[in-house]
Amino acid sequence: MKKRHLISIAAMSILSTSLFTACGGSEAKTEDSVVLRFAYASTSQPVIDSMNEFGRLVEEKTDGAVTIEYFPDAQLGGETELIELTQTGGIDLAKVSGSALESFSGYYSMFGVPYIFDSEEHYFEVMENSEITNVIYNSTEELGFVGLTYYDSGQRSFYMTSGPVETLADLKGKKIRVMQSETAIKMVELLGGSPVPMGSGEVFTSLQSNLINGAENNEFVLYTAGHGAVTKYYSYDEHTRVPDIVIMNDSVKERLTDEQFEAFLEAAQESTEYEKQVFKAAVEEEKKIATEKYDVVYNDVDSTPFQEAVQPLHEQFKESEKYGELYQQIRTIAE
Contact, 88 vs 34, CB < 8 A? Predict the structure, then answer.
């Protein structure tokens, strides 16, 4: 478990203003209304749209009794800080990468095992299987928060400043940014690269200054995050599919009536279905713009050698006393 961070003065100020407004300011709701605070860091437009759809559905299904107030674009900190704020009740909801949750629960490491999903179809089958996801979502219950739903974040592949990745040799010795995830670090090491864990906000300047040679993410980093200006090669090795997770503080259920909480859960699930519908079209548009604006080149990769190289990670989870059963459940769906 990571050491808990202190809430920044800026975050405290924002939250204090929010609480004043919700509890008695000039914009205050009625006594019976509930305002839930939802924070997120940088993310893709389809996920932003889906979070907004979640808020719209919550308000609609509760006849305005429950509303969502958003704190976007890392106003309250990065993903680790947002998880900790949700844990302590500083905020009610947060959207974070599944990888950011690894240090709070090892069960989330499962999403970071490269090639654990055989295909997009396999991934969605797993994510819609409550016997699997409930184990993962509820694994942080003792910490004061649980997973509520997920948003598809697509596949993750390597993108580089100089030349495409076509074989393992193209990664050998290269400094690759990874999320602050032990699984991601081990993956890049097994593939022959040199992993450099860092927050998303540092990646562009690190690529620009040649502090790192490349990174791994979905296509939304190319135009939305502007990385296509300094990385011209995006190579589809498709090593992982790590979902975004909406997490919820335990107190949310206590603040809502049974009917409101049921509507809240329905809204979360419907927003996930909405995101699945808009995500693919948004990816294609992102690729198109990145090509036109930055001349990004895309190439397919024979992933067989990559899959073979990361088998030690599979063996680690397969043989784990704690995670082995869940790993096998995921793999059985594919088989």
Answer: no
Q: pTM for this structure? A: 0.89
Tell me the C-alpha distance between 30 and 10, whole Å: 28
Q: Structural domain boundaries of the chain?
A: 33-153+242-282, 156-241+286-334
Q: Which CATH number fits domain 33-153+242-282: 1.20.120.1200, 3.40.47.10, 3.40.190.170, 3.40.50.300?
A: 3.40.190.170
| Torsion angle (degrees, nearest 10) of CA 40, 45, 46, 47 | -10
d(CA 237, CA 3): 34
pLDDT mean by block of 10 residues, the chain; 335 residues? 44 52 43 90 93 98 98 94 97 96 96 97 97 98 98 98 97 96 96 95 95 98 96 98 98 97 98 97 97 98 98 98 97 92
Query: How far is the C-alpha of 108 from the C-alpha of 138, rounded, in Å?
Result: 11
